[in-house]
Write a structure and sequence with these properties.
Blueprint lengths: L7 H4 L13 H11 L3 E6 L2 E7 H7 L9 H10 L2 H4 L1 E2 L4 E2 L4 H11 L3 E5 L5 E6 H17 L7 H13 L1
Parallel strand pairs: 4-5
Antiparallel strand pairs: 1-2, 2-3, 5-6
Length: 166
């Protein structure tokens, strides 16, 4: 039987880009655009302290209806830091967490990704909806090959989690 890989550590994106609370918002935005990513864990002294998303950065931009000049706007944007717009103490998972637990947290809190940390709260990756879809597609082939009734998929995955934990 094929070993099922249903742990966060085996499906997360790693290595991961990180920023500090002091990182200018413009630099974080440029990193996201250049790397094609939508979230950045925020670390201080090697520990996860927050997460900033592309949406957070877009909301931090001034309204087009502002009366400030372009020079004033640019000056203000250079002073705005990630620490001022990030989500503090974000939900997180560890590498040994199950994909199901990560998906449950993301669904319950309506978020698209989670930082993955080790036992020392150091960021080692990010697990996103895309990673979970990738896992589902990979595992779907196994389930189809075994001709498992779709209604039994949750039970089969749970059994594989128990088997993998042993």
């Amino acid at each position: 039987m094929v070993r099922q890989q249903l742990l966060v550590g085996e499906w997360m994106s790693s290595p991961v880009e990180v920023v500090t609370p002091e990182t200018p918002v413009a630099d974080a935005y440029n990193t996201m655009m250049q790397k094609g990513i939508r979230r950045l864990p925020v670390v201080k002294d090697g520990q996860l302290v927050g997460i900033v998303t592309i949406g957070d950065l877009r909301e931090a931009r001034p309204s087009p209806a502002t009366s400030l000049s372009i020079y004033e706007l640019n000056y203000l944007l250079t002073k705005l830091t990630v620490g001022q717009v990030m989500t503090h103490d974000p939900y997180r998972v560890q590498t040994g967490s199950s994909i199901q637990d990560a998906a449950r947290i993301m669904l319950r809190h309506k978020i698209g990704g989670l930082p993955v940390v080790n036992d020392q709260s150091q960021v080692v990756g990010v697990i996103t909806e895309s990673d979970i879809f990738r896992m589902l597609i990979d595992q779907w082939n196994y389930l189809a090959d075994e001709r498992i009734n779709p209604a039994l998929v949750p039970a089969v995955i749970a059994a594989k989690l128990v088997e993998h934990a042993s």
